Amino acid sequence: MAEDETVYDFPKSLLEAQDELDEVRGELRKLLKKQPWSVEPLPAWTTHENAWRASSHPDSPGWDSADQQRIGKLRAREVELAPLITGHSFWKDIAPEERTPARDQLKHHRERTTAVAAKHLLPHVAVGPGRNQAPGSGRGGQPWPARHFTAPSAYRPGR
User: Fold this and answer.
1) What SS3 state is found at 42?
2) Number of Cβ within a 10 Å radius of residue 18
3) Given a cut of 60, is residue 42 above it in pLDDT?
4) Total H helices, total E strands in the chain
C-alpha cells in the first residue's frame, strides 16, 4: 500500500458480504473444476481435420444431480451477494472517482489485514512479493515454479 493511499473504514456488513462472496466463489470454482465438460451426458467429439484449431473432448457422463443442485445454490447466492455489495449505502459517501480504488481495497481487505498483522507481529520480516514476481501479481509472494524456467532437454548443452 502506498503511503498516500486512502484507507477506507468499511462497515462490518459490507466486509461480511465480501467475505461470503469470496467463499462462495472459491467453493464454486473448486466444484466446477471437478465437473466433466458437459452438464448432460454426451459422447466424445473431435473437430474435423480441416478445423483451424484441433480440439476434442472425451465422453461426458454429465454432472451428478447433487453437484448440479449445489452449483445452482452457490450461483444463486453469488447473484444475491453481488448487488448487496455494489448497492451498499457505504458507496454513496464515496466520491465517484474514489470508488474503484475503494472497491479494490474491499476485494483485498483480507490480504491487507494479514499483511498489517504480519508486519505488526513480525516487524523484522519483510512482507511483500517474492523473487521473480511483480508487485501485486496475486501469488502471495511465492516465486514461480522452477519448471517454468527450465528449457527442454533437447536445448540444454551436454545432454
Assistant:
1) strand
2) 21
3) yes
4) 4, 2
What is residue 10's predicted lDDT score, i.e. its pLDDT? 95
Give the pLDDT of residue 49.
84
List the Cα angle 10/117/21 in 5-degree steps: 45
- Please tell me the total count of domains within the chain: 1
| Grid cell for residue 14 | 459490507
147 inside domain: no
Q: Cα separation of 46 and 55, whole Å?
A: 6
**Confidence label for 150 from pLDDT (cuts 50, 70 and 90):** very low
Plot region of 118 (φ>0 → left; ψ -120 to 50 → alpha; else → beta): alpha
Q: Which amino acid is at 79?
A: V
Per-residue pLDDT reduced to its tens digit, 99-145:
999 999 999 988 877 766 666 666 555 555 555 445 555 445 445 45
Q: Are 101 and 108 in contact (CB under 8 A)?
A: no
CA dist 70 and 133 (Å) reads: 36
Domain that holds residue 82: 1-41+58-122
**How are beta strands 56-57 and 45-46 bridged, if at all?**
antiparallel
pTM comes to 0.67
Q: Give the residue among 21, 5, 13, 14 at the shortest CA–CA distance from 98.
A: 5
